[in-house]
Design goal:
The chain has about 210 residues and is α/β, with parallel strands linked by helices. The chain has a single domain, classed as Phosphoglycerate mutase-like (Rossmann fold). Helix 2 crosses helix 3 and helix 6 packs across helix 7. The two termini are about 15 Å apart.
Length: about 210
């Protein structure tokens, strides 16, 4: 049985400003996010992590870098960037204030009928879920009992969780994934089960 630990990036500058960032480059962590990243040195600690898989977006890399540079990462065998773990492409909505976007007619569908939504000039929730799950399936196909740390984004992780719980896409917004939280599955190539959702504690305590 392998362990699949999903980690949302730390609080970002866009979170602090109430902006929908998506895949825009150059958006780092907020002061709180930098503290989140430092805290991960202890929160992940010396728990065995065999492989790290992460979104190519900068805020994910900034989140895990302090732990990677620490002595606690000695068990690490490999680090992989997976495009499928990236944030949703919000297209023309990228870089806009959430306060303004909430007044758009499409916002109600984003919240209540996301299966019908394709962002103007961007990606659909269906496509984002499909490519994210494909990336997770590639991780699950890795042989041996491994502990995988998967660093990604709130909506991406929520879409993955919804898929493996057999939840309808239109219900995925009911899930919550906080900055720097852990969501954990256990299993193998035949099936996986959710053991932890949106936990901001230490891995040693969570994994037991």
């Amino acid at each position: 049985m392998s362990t699949f630990i999903f980690l949302r990036h730390g609080h970002s500058a866009a979170n602090a400003s109430g902006t929908l960032t998506g895949k825009l480059p150059g958006v780092g962590l907020s002061p709180q996010g930098k503290r989140d990243a430092i805290a991960l040195i202890e929160r992940i600690g010396k728990n065995r992590i065999d492989r790290v898989h992460m979104s190519p977006i900068e805020r994910c890399q900034l989140t895990i870098d302090p732990w990677l540079r620490s002595t606690s990462s000695r068990s690490l065998e490999s680090l992989q960037i997976l495009d499928g773990l990236t944030e949703i492409d919000f297209g023309d909505w990228s870089g806009r204030k959430l306060s303004a976007l909430r007044r758009q007619p499409l916002w109600k569908d984003v919240q209540n009928r996301p299966s019908t939504v394709t962002f103007p000039g961007g990606e659909s929730f269906k496509k984002a879920q499909r490519r994210a799950v494909e990336s997770v399936e590639s991780i699950r196909a890795i042989r041996g009992e491994k502990t995988h740390l998967i660093v990604s984004h709130s909506d991406t992780i929520k879409l993955i969780v919804a898929h493996y719980l057999g939840q309808r896409l239109d219900e995925f917004q009911k899930l919550e994934i906080a900055p720097a939280s852990f969501t954990i599955f256990r299993g193998d190539s035949k099936g996986i089960s959710l053991t932890t959702l949106n936990n901001s504690g230490n891995l040693k305590e969570i994994l037991g």
